[in-house]
Amino acid sequence: MLKTGILGGTFDPIHIGHIECALKIKEEFGLDNVIILPAGNPPHKFARPVTPGLLRLELAKAAVSGIDGLSVCDIEVKKNGYTFAADTLAELKEQNPGTEFYYILGDDTAVGIGGWKDAEKLGGFANFILVRRKGTGEKGLEDAQKALSGIGANVLLSNETLPEISSTNIREAFANGSAPEDGSVPESVSRFITEHGLYRKGPMTEEAITEDLRSVLPPKRFIHSLGVAEEAVRLAEKYGADTAKAHLAGLLHDCAKGVTVPQLKWIGMTPEDFSPEPAAGFSYRVLHGPLGAVVAERRYGVTDSEVLSAIAKHTTGDKNMSLLDKVVFIADYTEKNRCGEFFEEVRRLADNEGLVPAIAFACDETIKIILKRGEPIDVRTIYTRNAAIADREKGKKV
After folding, report:
1. What mean pLDDT do residues 95-107 have?
2. On the chain, which terminus has fewer CB atoms closer than 10 Å, C or N?
3. pLDDT at position 278, please?
4. Helix ranges (DSSP H) in 130-254
């Protein structure tokens, strides 16, 4: 039976430490080969910029070119949405029935494996080779072994230690205009990074943001985001808001859609961090609004406070909304892919009577839907409704 190691990671970028680790593990455990597996969209890194998967794939290919026993697998980078080890291992196992897999994992990462998606299935797909990270200590190693045993995995302990090479420092070096001088990056990788201008400083272009969203969001959600961006521009032109800001906010309004509570924990946050008055009611359905502003700033480099505000408030609104806030809030209801009597009425009101009447109606109907579901109503939705009704009674349209 073929014995294949799997070294997964973001590889942003791949460096000499990854290559040395793969080769040493291959020799130590008598593996026939080791697959370098770049992650598609790693769920634990949703709030920071990640180089597009296809580019990281090319970096990995450049790094292993000409090295016997190492290869690169594209199974994850070709998928949309977040990628998970359990799904990948299941697929590899099905495609390679005559292969025994060995998943290579650092002890610092292994400690949290119980929180991975379908963690209880992982042990059935592969053996786990545990590699020490310098400075972890015996206690950390014991915790890692215990965590792997807890999911039923067969654990093999390597004598190797993961090299102390920082991908963050490598990215910063290239951002400052030159490759690291310590030899941590293979020449072929350094050349690719330079030629393609990777890791340059500054916010993402809208073109780059669009491509990243295409890879992260499910297809229907991505199409909806494009629709909201287009509709936000239309409404901005009609009511005098900044069209460029409207387009960017509309494009990113759902950038945190689908983020889970465990993912929040990975960045040191909880859902309650986004609720101004938890005791007054909070719905997880609206979490992606305020969280979206965090992702837009951290992952995409957006610093414009008006854009971030519009993203944050698009799910619930708030007491005091700017014109841009209102435009994006309503565009989420009236983009061209929204169908049904409810959306048609919001559309009619926005086009013929003004944003304020449209917001009042949208909030009223949304509250009715939430009550039918028996779910809590976020207090900001109530604030938005009351403010819109008060403004409507005063004759305000915008």
Report:
1. 94
2. N
3. 56
4. 137-150, 167-175, 187-196, 206-216, 219-239, 243-252
Contact between residue 175 and residue 200 where contact means Cβ atoms under 8 Å apart? yes
On whether the CB atoms of residues 56 and 27 are closer than 8 A, the answer is: no
Our measurement of the distance from residue 308's CA atom to the centroid of its chain's CA atoms, rounded to an integer in Å, reads: 17
User: Of 368, 362, 358, 363, which is closest to residue 396 (Cα–Cα)?
Assistant: 358
Q: Enter the tokens of residue 37.
A: 């597996």
Percent pLDDT > 70 in the chain is 98
For the beta carbon of residue 280, count every other beta carbon within 10 angstroms: 14
Q: What angle in degrees, to the nearest 10, is found between the helix axes of 305-313 and 323-334? A: 40
Kindly tell me if the per-residue pLDDT of 282 is higher than 70.
no
At residue 233, the 3 state secondary structure works out as: helix
Topology (CATH level 3) of domain 2-196: Rossmann fold (3.40.50)
**Candidate CATH numbers 3.40.50.720, 3.30.420.270, 2.60.40.1180, 1.10.3210.10; the one for domain 206-393:** 1.10.3210.10
pLDDT at residue number 187: 93
pLDDT band for position 363 (cuts 50, 70, 90): very high
Closest-CA residue to 51 (of 68, 38, 34, 66):
38
For residue 365, give both structure tokens.
């109907």
Residue with the bigger pLDDT between 181 and 233: it is: 233
Q: What local confidence, expressed as pLDDT, does residue 147 receive?
A: 93
In the chain, domain spans: 2-196, 206-393
List the alpha helices (DSSP H) in the chain: 16-28, 53-64, 85-95, 107-110, 119-125, 137-150, 167-175, 187-196, 206-216, 219-239, 243-252, 261-266, 288-298, 305-313, 323-334, 341-352, 355-373, 379-393
Range scoring the smallest mean pLDDT among 87-96, 115-124, 273-282, 371-380: 273-282
pLDDT over 80 (residue 210): yes
Residue scoring higher pLDDT (55 or 274): 55
State yes or no: pLDDT of 316 exceeds 60: yes
Distance between CA atoms of residues 146 and 164, nearest Å: 24
Same fold, 2-196 and 206-393: no
